Amino acid sequence: MLEIRPLHPGDSLAELTALLHKAYARLGALGLNYTAVDQDEAATARRVAGGHCLVARVQGVLAGTVLLQPTYAQNDCAYFTQPGVAALHQFAVDPARQGQGVGRALMAAGEDWARANGFRELALDTAEPATHLVTLYRSLGYEPVSHVQWPGKVYRSVVLSKRLGGAGA
After folding, report:
1. Distance of CA 46 to CAs 17, 41, 42, 52, 72, Å?
2. What CA–CA distance (Å, rounded) separates 161 from 71?
3. Distances (CA, A) of 71 to 12, 107, 133, 147
4. Is the dihedral of CA 94, 95, 101, 105 positive or negative?
5. For position 166, what pLDDT does the model report?
6. Which of 39, 84, 87, 110 could join 43 in a cystine, given CB atoms 3.0 to 4.6 angstroms apart?
7. How many domains does the chain have?
8. Residue 165's pLDDT is what?
9. Is the pTM here over 0.85, yes or no?
10. C-alpha distances in Å from residue 78, one per residue of 82, 121, 147, 161
11. Residue 96 belongs to domain with CATH number
12. 46 CB-contact burial (10 Å; exposed 0-12 / middle 13-18 / buried 19+)
């Protein structure tokens, strides 16, 4: 049984960090230095404190996560500072659960959160060389809108966005 809910204060950040490492290992092996490849527990805590973190559990076991961030006042990616645009980050699904609908359910829950909070658009970014992820996001209705070169990253990211119906549309 799949449960998607907000991260609770008592949830283990060590467990969440381990999930991120496992889910991002393939990207790290490709030479893509995503933050989640090797972030420590303190970085996970800082990142989730800045947004709305959702977790997916299957039969009580952590299977995925996504972090939603309201519009930024300042950001290296100007697209994320536009009024009405929320950002989706730190999307991860345990490799053993990929292809079972966990990721799609997390993405849908993230879109629901954005709509419920008055956002008209949800944007995300991923490394251009991670073409499998660009393809996935496009299949979910996200379209390329910009690019960003994050400080310290060895790749350029493509920014993709999806216009949301409902509140704030």
Report:
1. 12, 9, 6, 12, 15
2. 13
3. 27, 18, 23, 17
4. positive
5. 61
6. 39
7. 1
8. 82
9. yes
10. 7, 14, 10, 13
11. 3.40.630.30
12. exposed
In angstroms, the CA 115 to CA 18 distance is 30
Distance of alpha carbon 56 from alpha carbon 135, whole angstroms:
22
Domain with 116 in it? 2-120
The answer to whether residue 58 is domain-embedded is yes
Read off the pLDDT of residues 90-148 as tens digits, 9 standing for 90 and up. Answer: 999 999 999 999 999 999 999 999 999 999 999 999 999 999 999 999 999 999 999 99
Please count the other Cβ atoms lying within 10 Å of the Cβ belonging to residue 61: 12
Q: What's the whole-number mean pLDDT along residues 75-82?
A: 92
Cα–Cα distance between 128 and 159 in angstroms, integer?
A: 9
- Is the residue at 129 inside a domain? no
Structure tokens at 62: 């952590």
d(CA 78, CA 65): 25
Angle, helices 13-29 vs 41-49, to 10°: value is 100
Neighbours of 53 (CB within 10 A): 22
